[in-house]
Amino acid sequence: MEILARTVQATRSYGPVIALDGVSLDVPAGQLLGLLGPNGAGKTTLLQLFAGLRRPTSGTVELFGGDPRDAARRRRLGCTPQETGLPPTLRVHEIVEFVAGHFDHPVPTGELLEQFGLTGLERRQSGGLSGGQKRRLAVAVAFAGRPDLVLLDEPTTGLDVEARHALWDAVRRYHQEGGTVVLTSHYLEEVEALAERVVVIDQGRVRADGTIAEVRSLVPARRVRLRAPDLPDLAGVERSSREGERYELWTADSDSLVRQLVTTGTPFHDLEVATASLEEAFLALTSQSNQTVASVVQEMV
Fold first, then answer.
1. Is the CB of residue 204 less than 8 Å from the CB of residue 40?
2. Tell me: the pLDDT tens digits for 253-279?
3. pLDDT beyond 70 at 295
4. CA end-to-end span of the chain, whole Å?
5. What's the CA gap between 219 and 200, in Å, rounded?
6. Which helix (H) or strand (E) holds 202?
């Protein structure tokens, strides 16, 4: 399988701050990869390395088998950064056509605008667009040149639910046609809806890398939900919460927990047993790394 982008032990520092710390990551052709991580985790820096906007302090970065700063390689790349500065006096069609003019076989302007819900805005100056419309335009131009790889940094920030789902549909179509996407998002449901592979980054390091199911499985505890007037002390409960008769219990052995409920004769109903959600796995993985760093700092003190 062709690797479109790759980092090998890539580190990027900004003075004393280490944004990326020895990250090795491959992006194979045809994959839709979601990058998750808290603010300052290193997600944007990683995309900037792939796009040739930053150089690694150490380690290597490749784009289409070579230097990301090579203009010929970047012609196969589409990008939407977190912050975009669209020229306010240019009309929507002028911005799209300007970007499209850099490519040999661009998507026709009308077709591209339709895909991203911008039809009818062709002659509107970008300065007169709403925040959500500007964001959709910024994402749309990333696809103008029919790129082989698209990097999307928080693509749906500022969009309402309807616009967000319309953008999801456009990204899915591109991926179904063989395109490769790396996206970051603060919306875990977005990554869960789109990505086939998830990479969790925290404090510049990769904490997890796999399918959504594999990342969820890294949190061994299972969530047991049930309704009961009251519960006895149960062995193996790691944490719990209660709202009226609704209990939520976390345990490493849900079978044992249910057997205890039965053998103690505890009346209960509406029993549900589930693995951790992606959000719960993400919070557990990032909190674990933060706790590790905190303990190291405490030892140093």
1. no
2. 888 999 999 999 999 999 988 777 777
3. no
4. 48
5. 13
6. strand 197-202
